[in-house]
Every structure is written in C-alpha cells, then in structure tokens.
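Thread: "does anyone have the structure for this chain?"

Original post by V.I.:
We have the sequence but no experimental structure in hand. Need at least a predicted one for the grant figures.
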Amino acid sequence: MGKRRVKKKIDKQTAASSPVPNVDAAYDPQVVDGEVPIIDQEVERQCAAIRAIRDVEIEHLRTRIRLLRSYFSEEHLQTPALQFFKENLPNVSVVKVDDSGLFELQWNDKKYSLSINNVADGTDLHASLYRWQE
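Reply from O.Q.:
Generated one for you, tokens below.
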C-alpha cells in the first residue's frame, strides 16, 4: 500500500483571521491575463458547431432544390401552381388555411387519404412502400 498524505495543520489564529471565501466568487468567471474562461470557450465551441451544422443543412437544402428544379422544363416552371395541380393531380384540391395565407393539399376522395403513420392495414407508410418494392 502507498503512503497516506498527512493533512496540513492550520493554526486557529490563522484560520480565524483569514476571511471565508465567497462561494459565488469561485463560479464567477474572470478574465486573467487575457485568457478566456473555460466555460466561455465551451459555449463558443458549441455555438460554432451549431452554426456549422446549420450552414451544411442550408447548403444541402439548396442542392436538393436545384436538383428538383432540374427535373422541370422552363414551361413547367412558368406554370402557376394552382393550374399545375388541377391539370396533373385531379384528386387533390388546394384549400386555404384560415387567414394566415397558407394553403394545404387535400385529397378529394377520403378513401385515398394516406397518413404517414397509419395506413389501412395498420402498418406505417414506409413499411408498406418497402413491401411493395420487394
């Protein structure tokens, strides 16, 4: 076994004369000689990581939009959205949501309505599509 360290003895007079340190002062980050506290460095690192992820997601979204636009001809891009839905998706209607100015697409016939989590046989949509491909 290793040797134990001996506790330092403190004189009663020295202990009584020294002020009790403020507990909050131990957690108060202070800049000493131009050094940034460790907590601030960690926060800055996390913020930089979040900004980097956001930038990558934005660039990924832009790439997907460019790819999607490449599938359409110039004539398709000039066609108004409502006209496009009426011509190409006759079972879908465009419905205005309240006064917010937003629109939703809804099936005209309820028996064709699909939900991502609930298909007619009780499975989810992804599983049924996977089964259809096999």
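V.I.: this helps a lot. The longest strand covers residues 92-97.
O.Q.: and The beta strands are 92-97, 102-107.
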